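URGENT: need a sanity check before tomorrow's submission.

F., can you look over the Amino acid decarboxylase record below? I want to be sure the sequence and structure line up before it goes out.
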Amino acid sequence: MKFSVTQENYTMIADVEVIGKDLLIKITGGDTPHIGSVTTLTKETDLETIRYPSHDGRLHKDDVLAVRVGKIIQDYLPGSCTITAGVHVNHISKKQIMVSAMMSKNLGEQIRTWLEETDFSNSPKPIYYSDNEKPQ
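C-alpha coordinates as predicted:
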Protein backbone atom coordinates (compact mmCIF):
# COMPACT_ATOMS: atom_id res chain seq x y z
CA MET A 1 0.00 0.00 0.00
CA LYS A 2 1.15 3.50 -0.75
CA PHE A 3 -0.07 6.63 1.02
CA SER A 4 0.93 10.21 0.28
CA VAL A 5 0.31 13.80 1.25
CA THR A 6 1.45 16.98 -0.50
CA GLN A 7 1.78 20.42 1.09
CA GLU A 8 4.01 23.45 0.59
CA ASN A 9 5.47 22.18 -2.70
CA TYR A 10 6.66 18.77 -1.57
CA THR A 11 5.26 15.28 -1.15
CA MET A 12 5.75 12.80 1.66
CA ILE A 13 5.08 9.12 0.90
CA ALA A 14 4.51 6.15 3.20
CA ASP A 15 5.06 2.87 1.39
CA VAL A 16 3.67 0.04 3.55
CA GLU A 17 4.78 -3.54 2.92
CA VAL A 18 3.04 -6.38 4.73
CA ILE A 19 5.34 -9.25 5.71
CA GLY A 20 3.16 -11.92 7.34
CA LYS A 21 1.50 -9.88 10.08
CA ASP A 22 4.42 -7.45 10.32
CA LEU A 23 4.74 -4.07 8.63
CA LEU A 24 7.69 -2.37 6.97
CA ILE A 25 6.87 1.30 6.43
CA LYS A 26 9.19 3.49 4.33
CA ILE A 27 8.57 7.23 4.76
CA THR A 28 10.30 9.19 2.02
CA GLY A 29 9.89 12.42 0.14
CA GLY A 30 11.26 15.73 -0.93
CA ASP A 31 14.18 16.20 -3.31
CA THR A 32 16.52 13.54 -1.89
CA PRO A 33 14.79 10.58 -0.23
CA HIS A 34 17.06 8.55 2.04
CA ILE A 35 17.08 6.47 5.23
CA GLY A 36 17.82 8.83 8.09
CA SER A 37 16.32 6.80 10.90
CA VAL A 38 14.85 3.40 11.78
CA THR A 39 12.05 3.12 14.34
CA THR A 40 10.69 -0.17 15.67
CA LEU A 41 7.56 -0.89 17.67
CA THR A 42 4.75 -3.32 18.41
CA LYS A 43 1.38 -2.86 20.05
CA GLU A 44 2.93 -3.88 23.39
CA THR A 45 6.44 -2.38 23.21
CA ASP A 46 7.81 1.14 23.29
CA LEU A 47 9.12 2.79 20.16
CA GLU A 48 12.89 2.54 19.71
CA THR A 49 14.83 4.61 17.19
CA ILE A 50 18.26 4.65 15.60
CA ARG A 51 19.29 7.91 13.90
CA TYR A 52 22.00 7.86 11.23
CA PRO A 53 24.59 10.59 10.70
CA SER A 54 23.90 13.04 7.90
CA HIS A 55 26.38 14.56 5.45
CA ASP A 56 27.91 16.88 8.06
CA GLY A 57 28.01 14.39 10.92
CA ARG A 58 24.88 15.63 12.70
CA LEU A 59 22.17 13.04 13.19
CA HIS A 60 19.17 12.99 10.86
CA LYS A 61 15.92 14.23 12.40
CA ASP A 62 13.56 12.05 10.33
CA ASP A 63 12.66 10.06 13.44
CA VAL A 64 10.27 12.88 14.34
CA LEU A 65 8.12 11.84 11.36
CA ALA A 66 8.40 8.10 12.07
CA VAL A 67 7.57 8.47 15.77
CA ARG A 68 4.48 10.55 14.98
CA VAL A 69 3.24 7.88 12.53
CA GLY A 70 4.17 5.07 14.93
CA LYS A 71 2.22 6.53 17.84
CA ILE A 72 -0.89 6.94 15.67
CA ILE A 73 -0.86 3.34 14.38
CA GLN A 74 0.59 1.50 17.40
CA ASP A 75 -2.71 0.32 18.90
CA TYR A 76 -3.79 -1.11 15.53
CA LEU A 77 -0.68 -3.09 14.63
CA PRO A 78 -1.22 -6.78 13.82
CA GLY A 79 2.45 -7.63 14.52
CA SER A 80 5.80 -5.89 14.65
CA CYS A 81 6.47 -2.68 12.74
CA THR A 82 9.68 -1.16 11.38
CA ILE A 83 9.57 2.39 10.03
CA THR A 84 12.42 3.86 8.00
CA ALA A 85 12.24 7.60 7.43
CA GLY A 86 14.16 9.94 5.16
CA VAL A 87 12.67 13.14 3.77
CA HIS A 88 14.95 15.88 2.46
CA VAL A 89 13.79 19.11 0.87
CA ASN A 90 16.59 21.22 -0.58
CA HIS A 91 16.78 24.60 1.17
CA ILE A 92 13.71 23.75 3.24
CA SER A 93 11.73 26.74 4.48
CA LYS A 94 10.43 27.26 8.02
CA LYS A 95 6.89 26.81 6.69
CA GLN A 96 7.81 23.51 5.03
CA ILE A 97 9.34 22.31 8.32
CA MET A 98 6.19 23.34 10.20
CA VAL A 99 3.83 21.45 7.85
CA SER A 100 5.93 18.27 8.04
CA ALA A 101 4.34 17.51 11.42
CA MET A 102 0.84 17.71 9.97
CA MET A 103 1.91 15.74 6.90
CA SER A 104 3.24 12.86 8.99
CA LYS A 105 0.10 12.98 11.15
CA ASN A 106 -1.98 12.72 7.96
CA LEU A 107 0.06 9.70 6.80
CA GLY A 108 -0.38 8.04 10.18
CA GLU A 109 -4.13 8.57 10.05
CA GLN A 110 -4.31 7.13 6.52
CA ILE A 111 -2.37 4.04 7.61
CA ARG A 112 -4.48 3.67 10.77
CA THR A 113 -7.69 3.74 8.69
CA TRP A 114 -6.25 1.10 6.36
CA LEU A 115 -5.23 -1.07 9.36
CA GLU A 116 -8.74 -0.80 10.81
CA GLU A 117 -10.21 -2.00 7.49
CA THR A 118 -7.70 -4.79 6.79
CA ASP A 119 -8.14 -8.40 7.93
CA PHE A 120 -4.82 -9.96 8.89
CA SER A 121 -6.36 -13.18 10.26
CA ASN A 122 -5.55 -15.15 7.09
CA SER A 123 -1.81 -14.71 7.53
CA PRO A 124 -0.09 -18.07 8.08
CA LYS A 125 0.75 -18.75 11.70
CA PRO A 126 4.22 -20.05 12.59
CA ILE A 127 4.52 -23.58 13.97
CA TYR A 128 6.98 -24.13 16.79
CA TYR A 129 8.43 -27.22 18.42
CA SER A 130 6.98 -28.05 21.84
CA ASP A 131 9.28 -28.31 24.85
CA ASN A 132 9.37 -32.12 24.31
CA GLU A 133 10.30 -31.93 20.61
CA LYS A 134 13.60 -31.31 18.87
CA PRO A 135 14.53 -30.91 15.22
CA GLN A 136 15.35 -34.22 13.55
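My own read: The domain at 2-111 is CATH 3.30.230 (Ribosomal Protein S5; domain 2). The chain has a mean pLDDT of 95. If you see anything odd, call me.
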